[in-house]
Amino acid sequence: MTLVVHETFVSIQGESTHAGRPCFFIRLSGCNLRCAWCDTRAAWTGGQERSLDELLALARDAACPLVEVTGGEPLLQAETPALVSALCRGGFEVLVETNGSLDISPLDPAATAIVDIKCPSSGESKANDLGNLARLRPADELKFVLADRTDYVFARDLVREMARPGRAVHFSPVFGTLDPKVLAAWMLEDRLAVRLGLQWHKYIWGPEATGV
């Protein structure tokens, strides 16, 4: 069993409730969306085939209890659920970051899905599979990437309609486009029960750095 992998690396987790923790990343190749502000365009195509056993060995060698499977869009590859299950059985704490356009139900319930709901500025909001909101497990998280006020209103209204009390929901400003202070002010004005996400890896190493 093989998967097409863009890169693997160890870094500080920059997003989600796990931000700040050392993490081993498996970035799979291929994506079905073309978001206007995408910061991982290199992963849209290409990549190298790696076996499931090889990826498990790399995860063990990385010696990080936390592993994230990301992309691209990891759920495009039919073997991804098997990789996620194998990592869970291997004793890892597993995160799967997905663009929200594909059904998350094949993922092992022991993993945490981080579902990115696309806002209007992405150009891909029509691709959202909003059925995933009903498929979320208790530990799963939601992320909205916001470039402007229109995105904020879209995300705010959706959260007000569906947010489960205690669900981790992250509002992340597009780096260099939406000032975090502005987004923070909107959130405070509305007393919105969400978290401000700042992509810590970009603040540490800069927005152009790769493999971080």
Descriptive notes:
The chain is of the alpha/beta class. It has a single domain (2-205), classed as Aldolase class I (TIM Barrel, Alpha-Beta Barrel). 26% of the residues lie in helices and 25% in strands. It is built from six helices and nine strands. The protein has helices at 52-62, 80-89, 132-135, 149-162, 180-190, 200-205; strands at 2-12, 22-28, 48-51, 66-70, 93-98, 112-117, 141-146, 169-173, 195-196. A nine-stranded mixed β-sheet has the order 3-1-2-4-5-6-7-8-9. Helix 3 links the parallel strand 6 and strand 7 (141-146). The longest helix has 14 residues, at 149-162. The two termini are 27 Å apart.
Short description:
The protein has helices at 52-62, 80-89, 132-135, 149-162, 180-190, 200-205, and strands at residues 2-12, 22-28, 48-51, 66-70, 93-98, 112-117, 141-146, 169-173, 195-196.
